Task: structure prediction
Amino acid sequence: MADEIKIGVYICKGCGLGERLDAGELETIATREGKAAVCKQHDFLCSADGVATIQKDIDDEGVNRVAIAACSRRAKTDAFAFDGVALARANLREGVIWVRPDTDEARETTQEMAADYVRMACAELKHAKPPAPSEEQGRNTHLLVVGGGVTGMTAALEASKAGYPVTIVEKTGQLGGVAGQLWKRIPDRAPYKEPADTGAAALAAAVEADSNITVHLNSTVTRTSGAPGRFSADIATESGATSTENFGAIIQTSGFKPYDANQLPELGYGKSPDVVSQLELEALARAAEGGPIKRPSDGKEVKSVAFVQCAGQRSQKEGHLPYCSGHCCLTSIKQAMYFKDQNPAVETTILFDDLRTPGAGGEDFYRSGQDKGVTFSKGEVSEVVAGNGALEVKFKDLILDEDIALSADLVVLATGMVPNSGVNIEAEQGSVEVPVESILNLDYRQGADVPQLVHGFTDSHFICFPYETRRTGIYTAGPVRRPMDMAQAMEDAAGAALKAIQAAENAALGRGAHPRSGDLSFPSFRKEGCTQCKRCTVECPFGAINEDEQRYPLFNESRCRRCGTCMGACPVRVISFENYSVDTVGGQIKNIDIPEEFDEKPRILVLACENDAYPALDMAAMNRVEYSAFARVIPVRCLGSVNTIWVTDALNSGYDGVILMGCQKGEDYQCHFVKGSEIAQVRMSKVDDTLQSLSLEPERVATYEVAITDLHRAPRLINEMAETVEKIGMSPFKF
Amino acid sequence: MTDVVATNQTILVVGGGISGMTAAIEAAECGKDVVLLEKNPSVGGRVSQLYKYFPKMCYPSCGMEINLRRLKAQKRLRVITMAEVTKIGGGPGDYTATVKIAPRYVNENCTACGECAAAVETEFDDEFNYGLSKRNAAYLPFNMAYPQRYVLDPRVIGTDDAEKAKAACKYDAIDLDMQEETLQIKAGAVVWATGWKPYDAGKIQPYGYDRFQNVITSVEFERMMDPFGPTGGKLVRPSDGKEAKDVAFIQCAGSRDKNHLAHCSRICCMASLKQSTYLREKFGDDGKATVYYIDIRAIDRFEDFYTKVKADGNVRFVKSKVANITQEKETGNPVLHGVDTEGYERYSNPHDLAVLAIGMEPSVPKGAFPMEVVVNDSGFIEPDEANGGIFAAGSASDALDVNRSVQHATASALRAIQVVNRVAGAEG
Result:
C-alpha cells in the first residue's frame, strides 16, 4: 500500500493562465491520460488557500505524487514545498503563456503546449519516488588533516573550536611547515607597519594542548579509501608503525616547497653563497636573532642588500613558473625591514616589475617600508655577477631607461612556491619525468590524488565556489590550492574546515554536496543487466565509482554529486535515481501528443540543463521573449546525464528535432559537474550514425553551449530548429 | 507583522550580497538556524551588477542561480529584505539585533506577473544601473531578484500611481498601508557582510568625473555591457551615444592615495584587464584599450589572465599616474595628461571614453556601525577578539575579489558556528 501511486494534479488559473488556457481540458487530460486520481483547479494556487488544498489531499486523500501545473519550478518554491511526496512542476506560465503571443491564432497551439506539459508531469510522476537517504554511512565527524603547517594547524584548531575531533598527519618531525622556518611574518593586523611574530609556535602549542586534536609526526598517509562519513586512512610513521583510522572528511594542507633556485644560474644562485632565496634569508635572520644579519660567504655584516622580485616567476621561459606567488612583494618588504629595523644605514633595494601589495594592509605595509627608507626600483634584472667580495646586480631601470649595475653584499631572490599536490592524475602517460609521491594514496579507480587544475595547484575552477572539490569530502586548502600568503592560508583553512564539517554531517544524513546540496537521491544500478563496460566508472567527473572484486561498478553514495553522468553513460540503462531516471525523462518524452504529419505541427524536444539553460529560458519568458509553440522543454540535471536512448526514443516517436542545451565546456568550463557538457557533446557526435541508420538528416539533432545570460539566444536556437524543420520537412516517423 | 523565530543558537547574517549569502547558506547546510538580512528589496548585492567575472569571463548569474537554489532549499534559512540593523546589543552567545524593516508595499501574494508595472507610469533613476537609466515605480529589481516579488517605490505612495498599481493586482499583493516595522532578533553570533560601495569619483577633482560626461567609473562601464542594462548592451559615450572604441582605463583612481582612499582595492587591475576584453568582444579589431597604471596587480594565478591580455596587440600599457583630464570642446573626447614614467615622455592623449578604475570602500562608514567593532584606518573590520561573536565576511573585512570573498565568508560561517555550538553545548 505504501508504494501505491496516487497522483494529484493541481491546475492554477492565476497569472493569466485561466484566461489564456482551457483549464477544463487540462483537467480532462490529467485524469484520463495522466491517470491522476485527483485533479483540481484553483484561481490562485500559490496562495495559502491553494497550498492548503494540496496539503489536505496529501494528508487526507493519500496523494503521494503531486503535479503543480502553474509557474516554473524556480518560482514559488516556498509555497510549493511538500514533504514526503514526489513533486513535478508543469511549467505553464514561463514555459507556455509567457513565451507565446496572446492572439486568437496562437490559442490552439498554446493549449497544445500546455496539454503536453500536463501529460509530461504525470508521466514523470509515474516513475518518480520521493528519495530516501542511503544510510550507507553513519555519523563520523572526525576530520583528517594532511599537513601540519600553518594551514593544517589552523584548520584543526578551527574545527576543534566548533567541537569536532581532528587528526593531523605531518610528514616531518614537527609542526609548523614553512611558517615555522620564518623569522617574522607579514603583519595581518592594523596598523600593518611592522613585521610580526609568525605565530607558528603558538599555533603548535595550541594544537598540542588541544584534547580534540591528535598529531602524528613523521607520518604519511599510505592509503585512503571509503567516502565522506566513512573514509579509512592508513597512517604510517617513519619507524614503520601503521594505524588505520576512520574519518568523516579530509582536509589536505600539504603546502608548498620553494622553487629550486638552481634553475636561475644567471642570477648567481649556486655560484655565490651570498645569493640566497627568500626562505634562506629567513634562516640568516633567525641566526642573527635581531642582531646584524651576516653574509654566508665570510660572515661580514650585510651593509647592502638587493631583492630581485619575480625571480623565475611570471615567466614563460622553460623551467620557470608562469604564475605569481602572491606574497613575495610583501615578503621582500618585510625582509628589507629586518635590515632597516636593526640598522637604518643598511641599503635595501627592491627591484621589481609590478609591486603587488594589495588590500588595506598591503598598502600600509608598503608605505611603512618606504618610511623606513627601503628603496624601490622598477627594473628588469638580467644578471647577478659574483665579483671580489661583492655582488653586482645588472638591471635595466625602466623608469630612468638606463642600464645599471648595483653593488650589494647580499642578493635575495624572490622565488616562487611550488605546490605539494602529489600525483597529477590527469597527466598524459609518460609525460611525467620525475615520479612524484602521492599525498593521499587514494584507493580510487581514477587516481591517487585530487585532480590538479593548473600549474599543479588543486584549485576549484569556479569563481563563486572556491571549495568546489572534484573529490567529494576532500578539501584542499592553503598554498597547495593556489599561491597565497599566510593570512589567506589561515582563512582558507577555516573555510575548508567548515566544508569538511559540513561534508561529514551531511554524509551521515545521506545528503549530497554542492551543487546539488541536500539531494537525497543517489544512483542505484541493476547488476543483472550490467555489461561491465566501465563507462560509468570512467566518466564520473568525481571519481565516485570504484570497482568490486568481480569488476562490477561499486557506487559510493556520499562521493556522488547526483549529476547523473553515470546514468547518461550507461548503454544498457541499468543506472537510475529514485526521482530521476531513464524512465522519468523517457516517460515525458514518449507521452506527449505527436500530431500527424499532415497537421504540420512539428515537435521539437529541448533537453535543457537546469543550471544555466533552463533558467535562461525562464528569464527569457519573464521578459516575454517568444519561441516556437512546438518546443517541449525538459530540464535535466546535467547534459552528462542525457542518455542517448532519449534522443533515439524521441526520433523514433516522431519528434522532428532534438536540441540539447548545456553549459560551456572546455578550458573555461562552466559545467557545474566539470565534464558533463563535454561528455554529452562527444556522445551526440556519435548520434550521427543513429540518424543515418534511421535515414534522418543530421540537422535534426543539435547540441549547444548555452549561458545563463542567453535570454535572447536560447529562444533563437529553438526558433532556428523550427525553421530547419520547416525546410527539411517533418519526421517520417509519425504515426 | 513579520514573524521571526530566532534564539541564541541562531546565526544572524547582515547583508545579502555574495558574502552574506554564502555565509548564510554554508551555515544552514551545517544544520544551523540562520536569519539573513538584506537592506535592498533583493539579495544578490553588487555582483549582480557585474557583466562577467575575471579571469574566467563567466557570468555572475550562473553562481547566483546555484546559490539561490541552495538558499531556497534550506528551511532553516530565513531571508528578510528591506531590513537594516539599527543596533546590536548583548555579547557572544546572546545578541539582540534591532532591525528596521522598510515597507515594500507588496506582500507575499505577489506572483511577479508584472501587471502593476504595466499600469504605473512614474519613473525614477534606476539604482541598479547607477542612475544611468530609469525604472518604473513598480519594479522587480533585476531578472534574478529574490524574493521574486515586486517593489513599489515609496515616493509614489499617496499618488494616483499607487492606486493604479493596487487596482491592477489580481492577488491583493499591493498593500499601500504597509508600515515600517521594528523587530528584535536574537542571535548567538553575527556575520557582518555589508560589503562595499564605489568611491565617489566626483571627489577626484583633476579627473573631472563631475564635469565631463565621457569620464565614467568602472562600475558604470560594467553596467553598459549588460544587454538588460542602461544602454541595451552597447558600449557608447554618454555625451553623444557614439560607440566608445578607444577607451582609457585609469588605474588607482582615488586609491593608494592619501587624499582619497589609502588602500589598494585589489580587484581593479584585474577588472580593467577584464573590461579591456569587452572592447574586443564588442568591436573586434577596432576596439583599443590603454591602461594607465602604477603596478598591475594580477596576483597569484591571475597572472595567466594578464599574460593573455598583454598578448592582445590592441591593449597598451602606460606606466603613469594620470595627472588630470580635460575635455576637447568639439568632440567631447576626454584628454588624459601625464608623464609616461618609462622614458619620461609627457603625453596628452585623447580617447573616446575614460574609465576610472574606482576603489572599493566599506559601505558602512567608520563611525556608523550599530555596534562596537574594531575597525582599521581604512574602515574595514579587523578580526579582533574584542568583536566577540561578531565576524566580518567579505569586503566588509578588506577589499576582496569574489573568490576570496566567498572563501572569507565560508570561514566566517565557521566562526559563527563555533559560537552557537558553544551555546548549544552549554544549554545541553
Observations:
- Residues 607 and 660 of chain A are 5 Å apart (CA to CA).
